[in-house]
Design a protein that fits this description.
Layout: H1 3-11, E1 13-17, H2 21-31, E2 36-37, E3 40-50, E4 54-63, E5 71-83, E6 86-91, H3 94-97, H4 100-105, H5 110-125
Antiparallel strand pairs: 1-6, 2-3, 3-4, 4-5, 5-6
């Protein structure tokens, strides 16, 4: 993992998106199944939330090579409605992400780092954020 990725995960990410909460959830539902890293895909699932206001989502990796499609947690994200047309997208700092399951499966954070880059690139492609260029895929 690059030092930039390590700092990004250690510090976390907060981005305000000019969109409705339902649109951000729909974007994640549409784009995340197409993300991949080292033969793994990703799925998101709700952990807890308040409908129309805030969602905590678990990011799980999917091993497409296994017939049982086992899901392993790699991190989590939060989406929160700030007002009618603005959403806070947050990847909590690494110290808030720590769990035994994540530490055992994605110890170096490479899978989750790749997920974060891919979701930020999705936001840029949809003109919800402005980055100087696409983040690297690995």
């Amino acid at each position: 993992m690059s030092s930039f990725t390590q700092v990004l995960l250690e510090e976390g990410v907060e981005v305000e998106l000019p969109a409705r909460l339902s649109d951000v959830i729909a974007l994640l539902d549409e784009d995340v199944p197409g993300y991949s890293c080292q033969g793994y895909g990703y799925r998101i699932a709700p952990a807890k939330g308040q409908i129309g206001s805030r969602w905590d989502l678990i990011v799980r990796s999917v091993n497409h090579a296994r017939s049982d499609l086992a899901f392993s947690p790699v991190g989590r994200l939060e989406v929160e409605r700030l007002d009618q047309d603005m959403v806070l997208f947050r990847i909590p700092p690494l110290f808030e992400q720590q769990s035994e399951d994540v530490a055992n499966f994605d110890a170096d954070g490479k899978l989750f780092g790749s997920f974060v880059y891919q979701v930020l690139n999705s936001f840029q492609r949809r003109q919800l954020i402005d980055l100087p260029g696409p983040l690297p895929a690995f």
